[in-house]
Amino acid sequence: FSGPVERQAVLADVNLLLLLAIAVSSCPKGCLCCSDILSCADQGLKALPSKLHAYITTLDLNYNHLTELKEGSFATLPRLESLRLAHNRLKCLEAGTFRNSSSLRQLDLSSNQLDKVDVHYFLELTGLEELLLFNNRIVRVESKALAALGNLRKAYISHNHLTDFPFFSIQEDSHPFLATMDLSSNSMSKLPLVDIETLPAALQSGLFLHNNTLICECEMYNMFRRWELKGFTSIRDFREEYTCLVYGERKASVKFFQHRRFFELNLNCSSAVAGVVREPEGSMLVYEGDGVVLDCHTTLRGQHLTYLWVSPHHGAGAPPENNGTLRMHANGSLEIVSAQAEDSGVYWCKVFDTVKRNESWEVNVTVLMRHDEAEPFNTGFTTLIGCVTTLVLVLMYLYLTPCRCWCRKQPPPPGTPSPANDQCSAQSSILTPPPLTTTEGPGRKVSNNKHVVFLEPIKEV
């Protein structure tokens, strides 16, 4: 060995191997021991195994007949990280049950007979990240029951009998990492909308409230519509299961997202829904050449926030970057100095805080082209002018064209043939209808109006 540190590490590994070998040889009857895992599932146990070795990190006691857990039940397991107690008959937990279990990361108490969650249940589980309490008989969760779980990320309390829940106790300052809260399939008829809407956006996205006995209200419908427009997972994955009761009648159930006309017409929710469509997140219009400032909206608070913007054509940047086209400010906003057509697209902002929480915001910018105030002639108007002009020219040609012959001179004495008259008569006959024959003189033909046209000279007999 090269040094005392290496020797100590090797000795520790050897001791652990010896402990594992001894533990495997003393594995409880009917259980399965594998490395640091002890599984005693479905063994009909009414009490915990008598010998639990300190090396265990995963303990599986699912599908047994446990009815109680006493104080210090797991105190001898300081390395325990995952405890599975599903499908037992537990009705309550004594104070101090999880003493010396601060390393526990996952606790599964689903499918038991718990009827409430008291304040003392999880006081010692400061490192807990995932809590499973679904399919119990829980009717109440105390306001401070989850207060000690500052590292909690996921909580599943669905399929119980809850009529309310203390949303004010899981705000951002007390549970900064909480991103999933499943309260579906309970008996909640009303929701504290103010407390819910102050939750972080990440938690709202993972707040599952479907299959409750909610009473139809405009404010509730409005909130779920906003969640739908934002693409929250809680709505996207269970869209068809968000229902409410009309005036509280269980037989009169409607779906939030399939019966919108009911909410907009019967409950007069149309004005609220219109407000949802006009939310700032989504799109922004700006004229070419104008400047615009894009705000990075976030619920994160503190003086040490880090902002990152990603633009469609200029890549990523952070304050106080300024490339002449885009200017980033210290408060996280992004300024487009002079918008051009190529600046159109989706701008994405991400915010980080000191504990590595993050939120994102998207804005779709559309740059509109400016038009001159003096509009060109309308095509229809121009066509009409052309048609009128053509008609006038045709009339002028028909009625005002001068005669290029001597037809307007005094006619020669009777009996004197005139070649010019023959020519004029021939031209005139083209523009006049065929004459009618009268009895005023032999061979004389006249028109049907006051003008007389001679088709051929009259010869004296």
UniProtKB/TrEMBL annotation:
Example of a GO biological process term: cell adhesion
Domain Ig-like: 274-366
This protein's encoding gene: AMIGO3
Chief location: membrane
Family: Belongs to the immunoglobulin superfamily. AMIGO family.
Gene Ontology CC, one term: membrane
InterPro entries per UniProt: AMIGO, Ig-like_dom, Ig-like_dom_sf, Ig-like_fold, Ig_sub, Immunoglobulin_dom, Leu-rich_rpt, Leu-rich_rpt_typical-subtyp
Keywords in alphabetical order: Cell adhesion, Disulfide bond, Glycoprotein, Immunoglobulin domain, Leucine-rich repeat, Membrane, Repeat, Signal, Transmembrane, Transmembrane helix
Cited Pfam families: ig (PF00047), LRR_8 (PF13855)
SMART domains xrefs: IG, LRR_TYP
Sequence intervals crossing the membrane: 380-400
Record has Signal as a keyword: yes
Subcellular location(s) per record: Membrane
Topology in membrane: Single-pass type I membrane protein
Cited PROSITE patterns: IG_LIKE, LRR
Protein name (record): Adhesion molecule with Ig like domain 3
